[in-house]
Amino acid sequence: MSVETQKETLGFQTEVKQLLHLMIHSLYSNKEIFLRELISNASDAVDKLRFEALSKPELLEGGAELKIRVSFDKDAKTVTLEDNGIGMNREDVITHLGTIAKSGTADFMKNLTGDQKKDSHLIGQFGVGFYSAFIVADQVEVFSRRAGLPASEGVHWSSKGEGEFEVATIDKAERGTRIVLHLKSGEDEFADGWRLRNIIKKYSDHIALPIELPKEAAAAEGEEKPALEWETVNRASALWTRPRTEIKDEEYQEFYKHIAHDFENPLSWSHNKVEGKLEYSSLLYVPARAPFDLYQREAPKGLKLYVQRVFVMDQAESFLPLYLRFIKGVVDSNDLSLNVSREILQKDPIIDSMKSALTKRVLDMLEKLAKNEPEQYKGFWKNFGQVMKEGPAEDFANKEKIAGLLRFASTQGDDGEQNVSLADYLARAKEGQDKIYFLTGESYAQVKNSPHLEVFRKKGIEVLLLTDRIDEWLMSYLNEFDGKSFVDVARGDLDLGNLDSEEDKKAAEEVAKTKEGLVERIKTALGESVSEVRVSHRLTDSPAILAIGEQDLGLQMRQILEASGQKVPDSKPIFEFNPTHPLIEKLDGEQSEERFGDLSHILFDQAALAAGDSLKDPAAYVRRLNKLLVELSV
Ligand code: ADP
Prior knowledge:
Layout: E1 5-11, H1 14-26, H2 33-55, E2 68-73, E3 78-83, H3 90-96, H4 105-110, H5 116-126, H6 133-136, E4 137-145, E5 154-159, E6 164-170, E7 176-183, H7 193-204, E8 211-214, E9 230-232, H8 249-260, E10 268-274, E11 280-286, E12 303-307, E13 310-316, E14 328-333, H9 342-347, H10 349-372, H11 374-388, H12 391-394, H13 399-405, E15 409-410, H14 422-427, E16 435-440, H15 444-448, H16 454-459, E17 464-466, H17 471-475, E18 480-481, E19 484-488, H18 502-514, H19 516-526, E20 532-535, E21 544-547, H20 555-563, E22 574-577, H21 582-588, H22 593-610, H23 618-633
Parallel strand pairs: 2-8, 12-14, 16-17, 16-19, 20-22
Antiparallel strand pairs: 1-6, 2-3, 3-7, 4-5, 4-7, 5-6, 8-9, 10-11, 11-14, 12-13, 15-17, 18-19, 21-22
Helix pairs in contact: 1-5, 2-7, 10-11, 10-13, 22-23
The structure holds adenosine-5'-diphosphate (ADP).
Adenosine-5'-diphosphate binds next to helix 2.
């Protein structure tokens, strides 16, 4: 053992402590994954070295044969992993093995419930990496040296996984990282060649570099131990370079876990090789679950980029649009230069054509999933539906395709589940119906009882019910699907087209004519509060309703703007009343102008409430209503 200098003891970041505690207590049923996590890190470290060595070949000094070695000592109860990758300097060790750099970690930790079953799922989403060593070890030592630094600048990190860790400077002859796990009592089954080999085959076969184990060369009792011979136990070729037909589902799944830092299997994948003008391979995955930071701006997104099998960068964002940021995978190009940078990627026309091809692949994969595995697609939609809804605004070229993937709640369901596709909707459309009707609002409970739906219910026409915050904005980008235009049932002068018979229309006109006087009186009473007053043909049960002007912002957009502190353009609703409703008949017969005014305002406010809006002057509403109640009771 070499001399240690500059020894210090440091505390783990709070989040690390929490993670360690949780991991030890909730991942106990699947302990062997620690090896996968550590091999995955070692493989990343080798990838980084290979890439940096392109411009600095001297980094490979002392061994260009890149590999990972796993060994064990039954007596000492240790498992050791060694890689000759990029390594870490003292500062790297302190930050990488003492903190969690991911944005939103603190928030994530707050969501943990203490319920081990639920938390182990959450942790899976988070990705535990290095710290998983403490599932099986009660002491972990890391010896590392960053490639390019002198042997005297090695680091020794050591921790019992409780509150703190020690770091010291040591001599380390070879670059790279060696991790020694001192197994907990009861975990010595892992100090076993057969066991380790099986775990490596199971989880790490796809790792593109050799993973070696000592050959079992048994020495006779009392003999010197023979020099170690090593043998490669994994397949050690990049998975995506192999033909599809030769790759088993399990291999695809393990590869996904490696690149996505996810514990769960993906929902689907698409593996392709493109030859011709452009040459590249891609392997794209749809995760089963949204990562905890899906909505964080700085969250990692994008694909792993390789150029001719050499890893070039993580999170290459330029290959997919933002609304597909949840897709994980690898793209390996033969056309790009090995020294591409993010900036170059953003401008390169090659990237543009790859991006549109990869986008199509993802959309095709999702279409297939929706068609062949509708239950799985439901799960997908729950996790990623909100993000998919950003699609039509971002990706004009694929608008129709994206629209086909959207799922909505509708008046046909009774649980508010978003599981109606536009194709389902059109397949059920009424004879002569050439529009897709929808209503937006704050919650399913609110919209499903909206008076705007009355006429649709009467005629048996399905209406899509949109209650996600993004929906009104989404609908401003969707004009039509399959040649049928979208109509907001709360907007403008509802025209049911062919769904209204000529007689109905004529009858409505007749009624409207007889109510012209009433329209004028209400207009005078409501004054500045409304842009227009008219007889409604949307209502069967309610006395009145507020419609939004054709060009005005709806409630959701107004609320979003208000919440973000922006000035909301003034707009006034259209007041529509139901001429056959007893309250309206009463209003029509009202002699007292004062009472006519009160009643008109009450109807107006009630219509606003029914639409989920808040009242401008709630006290006035209560005062007027109480006045009427008092008059009623005398
Ligand atoms: P993640 O791999 O998700 O970043 P980890 O906790 O597994 O999280 O690892 C934290 C960091 O420690 C890695 O990102 C890497 O920078 C560093 N690291 C871990 N293992 C190694 C290794 N074998 N060689 C070099 N760096 C490593």
